[in-house]
Amino acid sequence: MDFELIKCKDAPHYLKRRDVFFVDLRLPGQYKEYHLPGAHNYPYERMAEWENRLPIGRTIILYCEHGNLSLMAAKRLSRRGYQIKALIGGVRCFLERV
């Protein structure tokens, strides 16, 4: 595995860091309902359209609703050389902690 998993309890540490780029992999409607502050909505279903536009040199933290899509995306993007972290349990887990 060429990416790191982040536990919900550790995620707040990353929120205000300028070297981190949060990617919400859910559908736009879900993103509009709630998302992490500063997160960018790049739906997993359209990954082929945006995967080459991610910032180089920044840590990219992926999340989805429960964590499954972010794991699949993390595997794919880490193979492309991105520095990837995936949020275990998804955004709901994180929001329940704050």
Question: Runs with pLDDT <50, length 5+?
Answer: none
Q: Total number of helical segments?
A: 4
Order of helices and strands: EEHEHEHEH
- Strand line-up in the sheet with most strands: 1-5-4-2-3
Helix content: 25-40%
Shape: globular
What is the average of the pLDDT values?
A: 92
What gap, in angstroms, lies between the N and C termini?
29 Å
- Which sheet architecture does the biggest sheet show? 5 strands, parallel
SSE-based structural type: alpha/beta
CA-based gyration radius: 12 Å
Outline:
With 98 residues, the protein is of the alpha/beta class. The protein is built from 4 helices and 5 strands; from the N terminus they run ββαβαβαβα.
How are the secondary structure elements laid out?
Layout: E1 4-6, E2 20-24, H1 28-33, E3 40-41, H2 47-50, E4 59-63, H3 68-79, E5 83-87, H4 90-97
Parallel strand pairs: 1-5, 2-3, 2-4, 4-5
